[in-house]
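S., here's the first fold you wanted:
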Amino acid sequence: MESKQRILVFVLIALLVATATHIVSAFGQDQVPDDVFSNESYYHYFYDERCPVCQEQERFHQEVLREEFPDIEINSYDIRESGSDERLEQLSEKYGFEVERQVVPMTVVGGNLYTGFSEQDGQEILENVRAIERGEEFEREQDRFVTELPFFGRVDIRSVNLPVLGETDLTDSVMVPFLGVLLGTLDGFNVCSIGALLLILGIVLKLGSRKKILAYGGAFIFTTVAVYGVLFFTFYGAVSQLFGYFGVIESLIAFAAFFAGLMAFSDFLKFYKHGPTCETTSSKFISDIRVKVTKVLKNPKAGLTSTLGAIMLFAAAMVVVELPCSAGFPATYSMVLGSLQIPFYLSAIYIIIYLFFYMLIELIIFTGAVISKEIWFSQDKAVTWLTLIAALILLGLGTYYSNILSLII
């Protein structure tokens, strides 16, 4: 457990440093000269010196493009310099394309937008330039995610053949929230959080009051989803700073999914052998809070405010301390959302969908307890086998994004 916490702390510190560096660099650069904006060249290139894929495109410019067109004028814009985003907006208005988020590399050739760079992109950019130099129009026929594969021909690497669902595009408007529903539900079968709720409900049920069951159980669930939601949005905001580099995006998603999948599979093996257990409860910090909450709940003289405060503190502590064990789920989904370049409000909707299904099993348990004054949930087999399903799905996502990475870079 301590090693998992150390890993999480290291990752969070790295993300905060990356975010701070991004912000400082953005304010520390000189403005782009106005005369650059007045240039009417048809070739516009947005880059970042730290971007490895941009370096690939720079070599393409020097070794391929300038070899055939030595006099071609390339307008280059470092995205860290103020004014580059305004220039991109001017180009989008002029040529009619939309950019939800500025990423690198990004190239505009005669009004055609190229996001990311691969050998296929380079060939298409070259054909685009040739057409412009001949005075001809050029219409894009290929997509960054479409590639030629042996025996299969042209295929869209965003699509994956899923059981029951068949051929599915993981970036479309249906699959993105579906992935949130799936991961949120699996994340919700959390042995630690469910165990804590059962502990509180078990004590409150003995009081025989539906009002107290509703108040105390509701306080626990509300605090859990609120704290988890804040952490989720914070993580999404931090990692979004890294989503300016194609190739890096896919690498992060693949790593997060593989790591989370391996951790889930390790948990499955332990659960299968010994039954679902929560390592968090062995923490002295959590044990002390649990004892205090139990005393407050059993104390007939305890006031409503002090009791609710103790329960909410217990719920918040459980979420924070247990986060290293389940962070892979929200981390993977956050990165998937970030890779889609969708508006923040849409990402927020998808995250809220995830959070709802994350809390769904606890809401069902809670509602059943309020109505029947009984706890019907037995988590041993359900949690064990759902943990295996979660591991397989996460490992599958890791494999999927690794395949995309190998084709893009």
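And the second, which I think is the more interesting of the pair:
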Amino acid sequence: MFTRIGDTWAGVVVDGDVELAMPEIGTSVPLSELYEDVEFPAEDAA
């Protein structure tokens, strides 16, 4: 996830029980809800 701090962008890896805060629009969403119906392909074991 990328967030802007002043004129700088900072990247952070998020997973698990994380809530995506969007203070600019006054809301937040659990990351798990955004991906609720998404099926990810299995990773190939190399």
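Why I say that: Strands lie at 2-5, 8-11, 19-22, 27-30. The longest helix spans residues 31-34.

Talk tomorrow,
H.
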